[in-house]
Amino acid sequence: MPNPSPKAVFVFSVFSVLNQIVQMELRSLDGSSDASPSKKARSSMQQELMTWRIISLLLIGAVIGLSVALGVIYTTHKDLEESEALAASRRDSCPATGIPGASGSSKPGPSPFSAADPHPLEDLYPSETQDIFHALMSNASLQLTPYDDAALSDNFIWAMELDQPAKFDVLNWRDGNNQPKPIRFARVVIFHGAWAVPEVVEYRVGPLPVSASNFRVWPVRHVPWIMRPMTVQEYDLLEGIITDAFGQLATICTESFGGTYDEEALTWTDSSPRGYNRTERHTWVWAMHNVDGAPYLLPTGLELMIDHTDVDPSNWFVKSVAYNLQAYDTIAELIDQYNNNASFVKINFPAPTDPYYLIEQSKPTRQNAQHASPRHVNPGGQRFTVNGPQVEYLGWKFLITSSFRSGISFSDISFLNETIVYELSQQAAAATYSGRPAAQSASQYDDSGWGMGAAAQPLIRGVACPETGVFADVFMWWNSGNISHFQGAVCIFEKDLGTPIASHFNKGNDGLDFATGIHSTALVVRFISTVYNYDYVLTYTFFLDGSMDVDMSATGYMQAGRWADANDNQFGTRVQDQVMGNLHDHILNFKVDLDIAGTANTVDSIGVAYDTFPENPFLPPSKLAKKLTHNLIATEMASKMRLNPSNPHLITVINTDEPNAWGVSRGYKFHLHSQANSLQTPALEWWPAFSWLENSFVATKRKESEHRSVEHFYDMNAPDVPLVRFLDFVEDDESILQEDLVLWVNVGSIHIPSAEDIPLTTIAGQGIGFTLRPFNYFDAAKLEDLRQRIYIAYNPARPSVGLVEVDTAKASECFQSTPDYSFSGSNLYGDH
Ligand SMILES: [Cu+2]
């Protein structure tokens, strides 16, 4: 119970004194009534005098009480004014709060690194990319054309990013073994359309910073032309063919959909893979209503397959056209059937007049919806720092890096000065669809093959990034003539979880003894990748006890299908008139390069099952009891595991040479938050490129040559013969006992859409990911060095009374009620 204020004590004291006087008088009256009958004959005057004395005392007491009360009201009001002024003055002097408009900043602070002295794992600086660009452009042997001027038949730079230095070199430098800082190199992807046999080649370029006179460039990967990633140049060529085809179909489009492509009533999108092997390259595209915001929800049922296998684009052609689930070899054949076949079933699907697909409509009619929602505050100042790519938070320290392939990654994550994870990076995001139209049956994506990293978006303040969040920018050079500046693509904030990280109510023999708990907060790093229709919300959370969590929740517009009739219901759900949500899955692949108490690590898969213990006299007659089985996994193949709740195994990564104080190997454990394993099978044509889907969890011995589990920019174009087949990492079956390990983790969900996916898929309860938790890593939970605890002693007889430690910071003092909601809305190509 809080201590009473001095004013409350004074008021209480005055009334106590008055009460005592009255009680004394009443006792004297009672005493007279106990007197003998002879004394009852005393005059009534004496009794009246006593009555008046009591009334007078009560009146005096009332006057004093009222005066005191008025004084209290006045002084309380005055105190309120003073405390408001004090709060305002404190607010003016709030330390770096991270609250826009307060004295903090929503931007990162100064970086400890620079282009002149970078961290070896840091992203390329814009200035480094400019130096590389100019050096390569002036290299006569490459004969490069600037991207914006290049045709597909030219040589041009498509992408560049850091070429990861060897881990051995980074650790030797980091750990102070008198080794020099690793030299940085870039990986540059160049299209060689001008070569007699065109190729895409990945080059290593450096050392950085390069100058025109001092750099080397040498090829490290050759990609067959047929597996080239899509470019602006190739899309422009497809656009010509599509425009021509839709032009021929204008009458059908007007009659079926109420408008044409030329009139901009229709638009289109495309799917992948573009064929299954290295002999074909074709793309299915489909017409959608060109409505504001949500064409992906309104596919029309008109689809084209364009063959762009030939090296010469003049030989590309429409290989198939589909209308209302019927495929025709030529456009002319479709037109003929449409006009002349009496049994031809025509679509009647104009753009809906009810804009159900728009989300800006606001109708705050729900009770209390007119009030502002809760907000985050940093009442005592921001407790984390963001200095360039380096983030620190209550013992945590890491670098944020990025890749155009799949987004942000984390390097050298340490907790209390010990590295836990050398690299945490999302690798792939499968989204494989099912349905009758080509738009669904041919859509078997890995969204990393669509540039998931370069699909970064500026986060919305107040939606994906709270008012206390610090925005960080990301720079990537991808599919463009210059580096792109993704403003505010990363949000970093400390989150109030509104829950205890630990708490307890202790009941002693004589009632409640004490209550205690630690308020849970955590640092969040968020990145959203909007791959066409879908928004992957990736949230990385760093908890106070050394745990960390990875979560992906998908939102955005579905890639809907056209609902033709009840036969479609086996592939999804009808969600609007002629619109269906098609069955698909979301499976994500993460690379986790754990270093637990050093780089020599072992996977201990701990099983739990019933066994018989006949010698135990305390067991029931069955003699059954659950027991643990520790399985130190010896080889890569043996580490393959699929999540199976009916046969539970706890996956831990331990260092068997590093025991904690109790002789138990220090380790971390994985909790997978996964709703489904992949249903893909080796019978599928694209399986080799998707073989990473086979398991929930695999451990491999770390190799520089096994940097990424997928290369879907290339392999989505010939998945049957991919450049990287993940299972090759595993099938050489090397020993993984006390080795430097990489854990490849898959988590997934099956999305059976429902009407509530309109207009936007909502996130609640759909997250998939995993948690890494200390598992005998410490000698006890690492919480004693935190302040944000409350301890309330109820039993004063306990020796612990007086140990009351309360998080007393007042939230209101540093809260800015009108945060800055400015939004750049830009991921500016060429802005650097
Ligand atoms: Cu989905």
TrEMBL record:
A GO term from the CC aspect: plasma membrane
An MF annotation (GO) of this entry: quinone binding
Amino acid composition bias (Low complexity), ranges on this chain: 98-116
GO BP term, example: amine metabolic process
Post-translational modification: Topaquinone (TPQ) is generated by copper-dependent autoxidation of a specific tyrosyl residue.
Entry keyword annotation includes Hydrolase: no
Keyword Cytoplasm attributed: no
Residues in Copper amine oxidase N2-terminal domain copies: 134-210
Transmembrane segments: 50-74
Region (Disordered) residue spans: 89-120, 364-383
Cofactor: record remark: Contains 1 topaquinone per subunit.
Start and end residues of each Copper amine oxidase N3-terminal domain: 228-325
Cofactor(s), names only, from the UniProt record: Cu cation
Location of 2',4',5'-topaquinone modifications: Y534
PANTHER family named in the record: AMINE OXIDASE, COPPER AMINE OXIDASE
Protein name in UniProt: Amine oxidase
Organism expressing this protein natively: Capsaspora owczarzaki (strain ATCC 30864)
